[in-house]
Design brief:
Layout: H1 3-35, E1 46-54, E2 57-64, H2 80-102, H3 115-138, H4 140-143, H5 145-166, H6 169-205, H7 211-237, H8 241-244, H9 249-269, E3 271-273, E4 276-277, H10 280-301, H11 318-328, H12 354-359, H13 361-370, H14 384-395
Antiparallel strand pairs: 1-2, 3-4
The protein binds heme C.
């Protein structure tokens, strides 16, 4: 295993573990907030109480502000899961997308931009993205939260579209994911944690606590909550090149994000507090409709204009197929690739022997002809005629004699 592959697997593993811990926490606290029970006997600083059953005993939990001077010795904070998720994510971005001359970041058929410029654009958009989002919520957001929300949605969708113009398809998705993750992390470290520090200070010093700070932190935490579902889709999207490399990849991501956040909204609106819930159909139906929107986006948009418009009407011999594969695919898809970036066969796929080529025939047609996203970034300069020749051979039965 190469060093960069080793880094890749270690970072990916840690990213997944930290991400599950962070998102899991966020979901649980959100759920608790929505299920708190407010009763008359709770003090005026209380925001509600809840009993939960887990791992063999009851948990009694109350959400409240503390009276001045009541600060306990030990208070648990939740911030390092978030930091670890973000840091490993940035590490992955660098390892996978910035290393190897930014081979995964740039696709010359999308936009012919040099690796240095592409990397600068990627880093720059993360920084400016956070600054713009934060500025919106520190200005318009204070008085007009709805306007701020609309601005942020437009800004996010605009970013997705912009990324799809400069980066390779999968990089455009991942860049969006890192932008969302960076905004969520900024929310934790620059808004939620500072507001909690002030809360602790106020509790210790006995000064009145500013409820505005608590509300602000709650609002940012809610933004994070809605962003998780689209973000998790982006994390798995790299396996689905039918979406990421499609010419309308930005539209697919926008529609899936709307659907994903919609499912989250329906799940959030389910609980009314104190054990009360909306009628099942009042939240489950909108959840299914939102999920349906996401799936329709994937199914319908990714099929628009899918079939390449070239074709041939004569049979293609296996000798010809081997010739094409040898020149256009084997530089990467071989036991010993000759490519300068891919030192081991990508996706474990080798096309060295006739049997290997035959076994892979349906996948070859799908990626080379239907989706036309192989060879990778068309690095080996396959022609449209050759794509059609490979497809014709597959459709005729993929015979190797
Ligand atoms: C420059 C290197 C490169 C070349 C050349 C190349 N590929 Fe790939 N291929 C990749 C990479 C990287 C992946 C994994 C990422 C992906 O699926 O997009 C991949 C994945 C695939 C997959 C998906 C395998 C799976 O099981 O998911 C198929 C099929 C494929 N390539 C077919 C081909 C064919 C056929 C050719 C020649 C016409 C070709 N590739 C040329 C780099 C290359």
């Amino acid at each position: 295993m190469q060093l960069s592959e080793l880094l890749d697997v270690i970072l990916r593993w840690a990213h997944l573990i930290a991400g599950i811990m962070w998102v899991g926490n966020s979901m649980l606290f959100n759920w608790i907030d929505r299920n708190l029970e407010k009763t008359a006997e709770l003090g005026k600083l209380s925001q509600g109480k809840i009993y939960m059953l887990h791992s063999g005993a009851f948990y009694e939990m109350e959400k409240k502000l503390l009276a001045p001077g009541e600060m306990p010795n030990l208070v648990h904070w939740f911030k390092w899961q978030n930091f670890t998720t973000w840091a490993t994510g940035i590490g992955l971005l660098i390892t996978v997308y910035y290393f190897h001359g930014a081979a995964f970041l740039v696709d010359p058929s999308v936009h012919d931009v040099g690796p240095e410029i592409a990397i600068c654009l990627s880093v720059g958009s993360l920084l400016t993205g956070w600054l713009i989002y934060d500025a919106i919520w520190r200005t318009v957001g204070i008085t007009h939260p709805r306007v701020a929300s609309a601005l942020c949605v437009i800004f996010l969708f605009g970013s997705i579209w912009g990324f799809s113009l400069v980066f390779s398809g999968r990089a455009a998705y991942v860049e969006t994911g890192v932008l969302i993750g960076t905004i969520m992390t900024g929310n934790v470290w620059f808004v939620i944690v500072p507001s909690q520090k002030l809360l602790v200070e106020a509790t210790i010093s006995g000064k009145a606590q500013d409820p505005k700070l608590s509300l602000q932190a709650k609002a940012r935490s809610l933004h994070n909550n809605y962003l998780t579902f689209p973000l998790l889709f982006i994390m798995v999207s790299n396996h689905f090149s039918a979406a990421t490399t499609h010419h309308l990849n930005w539209l697919i991501l926008i529609v899936v994000s709307i659907g994903g956040a919609g499912v989250r909204l329906a799940m959030n609106s389910r609980y009314l507090g104190g054990g009360k819930q909306l009628a099942t159909k009042a939240w489950l139906l909108p959840a299914f409709v939102s999920g349906g929107v996401a799936i329709l986006g994937l199914m319908v948009i990714s099929r628009i204009d899918l079939k390449p418009k070239y074709g041939i009407d004569h049979p293609v011999t296996f000798a010809r197929v081997q010739e094409i594969v040898g020149v256009r695919c084997v530089p990467c898809h071989s036991q010993k690739p000759s490519d300068d970036v891919f030192r081991s066969p990508p996706a474990g796929m080798m096309l060295d022997t006739p049997e290997q080529i035959k076994t892979m025939a349906p996948k070859i047609k799908y990626r080379v002809y239907d989706l036309a996203n192989m060879p990778f970034n068309n690095k080996t300069h396959i022609t449209d005629l050759e794509r059609a020749e490979l497809a014709t051979w597959v459709v005729a039965g993929a015979h190797i004699e």
